[in-house]
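Supplementary notes for students who missed Thursday's class. We covered one full example, reproduced here. Read the sequence, then the structure, then the short commentary at the end.
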Amino acid sequence: MPHYIKKLDEHKLLQTKLNFELVAAHKAYFESKLATSVLDNLDIVQAVHLVSANILRFIKEHKTSIKSIVDANEKILKELTDDIFYGRFDSKPINSELLLKLITDKLSDQKTPLNTVFLIHGVFTQRIFADLEKNNGEIVEHLKDKKDNLVKTIFSNNLFSKENRSRTLVHEESIHTEQLGISRHPVFKKRLPQTQSHQPALGRFEIDFDSESYATLQEHKMPFVAGTSGHTGSALLCALLFGLETQEAIQQYALAAFACLCAGGNHSFHETMIVAKQVGVPYQVGDYQRALPRSFFNSKAHQNLKTEFNQYLPQEKTL
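Structure (token representation):
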């Protein structure tokens, strides 16, 4: 091959790489702005309150058993109050009774920040409900078949096997940050608001550059943060076990999950919505509009975002 042709090929590859990185960086900025807009407009995700109300009812019905679990499982207090977690409680209760009261008070108050509600839902599913299933199986027996079927649907191998997740841990811990979102771009980062200090997943993982997942991200110029989102799966499991049935409600809850995970620096839109797709959210890679609920298109958040990001929100959604 002539030297000048080789140089042209190398230049073309470099241009392709730079174009991918620039567009993906802009999408990471857009996704971060979308996430923070949802956090500031809770009316978009009313379905979250329905799940909270059903969890509260469940806690009230089984308070003694749940109090025993909260007392015995130290991870519950840690994951709700430790300074690495985004959405953590501002205070650390001195006993299980006060912790359970704080949980129920925050779930009862519709003004509780969405990231805190989402954190509670996750801890409830992964710690409290899971421990009930192990130690007091009769309490959740009526939900067992439904839960087992949902787990098979949501956590399928084609998403969560080691090969398909296509990521490598490169840092055991990330540094604390007050930055919201998933942007790594030095200019875009400065345009995003700040929050309580926390440890994001951003920067802890590298994608497998030989994987199909990377090829998909490159084709659609989508950002990578930490691979397929297990937290989204747990959140949707909780939501579907505790009250969500309609398509709109499920899409609202999926958007809430994305908003909290993206704002906390833990997952991108794609990493969240490919999991939500397992339960019927109509996500297609690179298409933001299709996966969003009707409530978003009726909101001020949409009006504000489409002005700056018309390329990602090009049309009014049919309501």
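Commentary. The two ends are 57 Å apart (CA to CA). The longest strand covers residues 194-198. If anything here is unclear, bring it to office hours.
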